[in-house]
Amino acid sequence: MNSTSPLFVAQEALCFYPISTIYDSCPRYLFYALLAASCLTRWTGWLADVFLGAAATYAGTAAIEAFILVSSPQKFAAPANVTIPYVPDNTTLWNDFPQLVTETTEVPIQPGAVELDGDAVLAIVVTGYLVFLPLQCWSRVLTNERARNLLFYLWNFLMLAGGICALVYSHQKSKTPLQFMFCYPDIPPFDETSSDGWQASWRPSTWNESVWGTFSNVTRFGELGDICFNPCFNSSQILRQPSNLQSWAATRDSELSHPKKFIDKIIYSKRYIYSLVILCVLLNFVHLTFKWLPYKSHIPSAQIIIIWQDRKTIWESLKGDLREALSTSSSELLAQKESRASLPTNKSSWTRVRAASTPRFMKALLFVILDCAILFGLVFSMIISPFTICAFVVWIEWWIHNDGPQQENPQQVGQWSYLVGIALLIVSAGVLTLKYRIASVNELDVEISNTRENLAKLERIREARSPAETVSLAGSAEAEVS
Length: 482
Description:
Blueprint: E1 9-17, H1 25-40, H2 46-71, E2 80-83, E3 106-109, E4 114-115, H3 117-138, H4 141-144, H5 146-173, E5 179-183, E6 192-194, H6 207-216, H7 218-223, E7 228-229, E8 246-248, H8 261-265, H9 267-292, H10 304-309, H11 311-341, H12 349-355, H13 359-401, H14 413-433, H15 435-438, H16 441-481
Parallel strand pairs: 1-4
Antiparallel strand pairs: 1-5, 1-8, 2-3, 5-7, 6-8
């Protein structure tokens, strides 16, 4: 054995679980389309419910997978060195082994695999969270009813939690060690190899003895069932079958010729995208603060249309609060001065300056600044959120595109079945909205009777709640007076 004809060679490989069919390109693009349709049909009831309900169900599944992935990280054994035959850098084997390991006699083995579902899950949950921001600004249907609003906010918190877990898992995934495959020099490997399941007999002792024993014994190599020896096929993942694991020997021209190459190329764009996402998260908390905190703001609603319609009233209210606080503070200062001097005193510029520094005026100014901050957050969110959604989707889809080949093509049933299911759901929802037009007289009589019973039940609930709400309103009025 010499450097021109070594017993075996080692080359870098990317071991990965391909994106699951449920998160492949067609279902993801359908998810984006459903979110866009939810925004475009926000003024409707049943149609927006269908689009947003289907999108929320799909994104909820992705969020739950993010919880599982981050709670069960892949564990890596301590690296074990494997000695390899020395191959010079000027070898002719480069044509058959594009990721050949040269100029060394030892490589570290630490079996592991990349879960590409993490990228698809990140795309889905973060996009679902970002869409929440423009929807709560534009849609009256989603923000008026308490039950619908509660579901909407629960979905928002689920997407936020899923997005945080997906980002944490993305950081964990980047720590996956570099993988190697070992091959005979005269038998080039396939560009992509699937695992048939790891057998315990393929690693009877240490990795070094297992590799050398496999290539020193032709019979043992024949039992391997593969052209190359892939230690990464020994690893496992909580949500996957071992046979789903694949090993990819990328060419030098590929974006994945080295697992870190593509990451190094887009690290700066990654920072920009995540900065926009963090900005949208902060703006989202501005909305939640406006919605849930017991603060009586002059901004009548979180919806931009209502704010625009009442812009004059808002402006006059803000100015009126400052004028009233300044006038009251000036009067109090003059009264104090008169009581001390027992002489009438006219208002002066110095009195107004002192009035502007009183606690009463500073409190009014603080509330005005808070209202202006809320108004700025609401308006700015409508400018930044659409741009952030588009930028994030383009960026993450380009990232996923460079993850590797798809597991299924669009023409396969595992991909287009989701589109057919949504189409059938829309047809069913449309038919149900027309149920009164196509119902028989007997069905209408039954519906009228049920409606009367429900109306009587609602009236009883309303009467039971009225005394409690009256007491609550009276207590609030007394607190304001005091």
